[in-house]
Amino acid sequence: MGALTSWDMATIEEVYRKKKPKAFAADRSPSKAEVWWWFFMRLSGIVLLFLVLIHLYIMHLVDSGVERVNFEFVAERWDNVGWKTFDWVLLVLALLHGVNGLRVIINDYVHRPGVRTTVKATLYTVTAILMIMGTAVIITFDPAVGG
Amino acid sequence: MPEVTLKVLRFNPETDAESHFEEYRIDANPMDRLLDLLHEIKWYQDASLAVRRSCGHGICGSDAVVVNGVNRLACKILVKDLPSEITVEPIRGMPVIRDLVVDMEPFFAGYRAVKPWLITDDEHEPTRERIQSPEERERFDDTTKCILCAACTTSCPIFWSDEEYVGPAAIVNAHRFIFDSRDTGAAERLQILSSSNGAFKCRTAFNCTEACPRGIKVTMAIQEVKQAALYRSV
Questions:
Q1: Which residue(s) pair with B145 in the sheet?
Q2: In a mutagenesis test of the B interface, which of A15, A24, A31, A108 is the best target, namely the one with the most B β-carbons within 10 Å?
Q3: ipTM for the whole complex
Q4: Is the Cβ of A28 closer than 8 Å to some Cβ of chain B?
Q5: Whether the Cβ atoms of residue B167 and residue B91 lie closer than 8 Å to each other
Q6: Rounded to whole angstroms, how far apart are CA atoms A35 and B136?
Q7: Which residue of B has its CA nearest to A15?
Q8: B213 contacts: CB under 8 Å, gap ≥ 6
Q9: Which residue of B16, B103, B108, B164 is the best one to mutate when testing the A interface, meaning the one whose CB has the most A CBs within 10 A?
Q10: CA of B106 to nearest chain A CA: how many angstroms apart?
Q11: pTM for the whole thing?
């Protein structure tokens, strides 16, 4: 038996060694993060069901719908701290619910560690920017600007 | 005797770059099992076909295959319940060793990880039986039925996309001990299943429940394990 040459057929053993499958390994540092995110998805899902439908109704269905939404409309609505809170809770829950869903999908389908880290880092950066921008608008909104 | 056409997905790692279907025509008896047809091929038509089976009676869990797109045990499905054209493929999500035989390692790695044995804090071997009431036994009866055939795990779309997912069968076998009144390893197992590739990767697709040849309510068991992990965390 000489050395393996390119025209030799690979044995099952060799094929197997090349394609050794990945398999489950528990996290090195156990955490309850997944448990809590799972629970958060259930809770936020229930709450969002109401928030989103109310939002949809007010912004798109009543009167002439989204056509009538302008600066004045927003200023009038946000004069009420309750609606400000409503919109902020909607922002936070919808953003976190959606982003966690994407995180889970990335974990499922993006296998190469480098690519996975990059995609997730991008996702989290965009999330942080959106969260900060949305929160800032709600907090610093000044009805006087519109005159 | 109805003639059936069996299309079998063949792969020989020593000669093939890709798997391909090969067709076999068989005079079958309506009461034949699919396993009998595979035997017919292997014994009389093409001895090179690789099939895995042991008991042939739905207990050993060796011959799970994809039959017309769904996971079934070849020994538990009859010709009369199948159309005259039958496709047979190896179960999905695990590397094919040859033809219908797959490498079960990703499956068993998940199984081993949940410590599928009785854990007690007894310092010594007990001198008498560990008593359990019929109600306590009933609590986990459904998940004792598992035969480790991998039909559930290899029907799971999450497992297809990520072999590192522990898989439904492993969670079922964890359930069997987590809800056993004699066992004290629940905390340990729930911690393992709370890891990022554990029970919370389940997206309740219900493929596992549909695939189980033993009729185990697999998705239900997984949800119960998730609940137990959550209640333990609260």
A1: none
A2: A24
A3: 0.84
A4: no
A5: no
A6: 26
A7: B13
A8: B58, B64, B72, B73, B76, B147, B149, B151
A9: B164
A10: 4
A11: 0.89
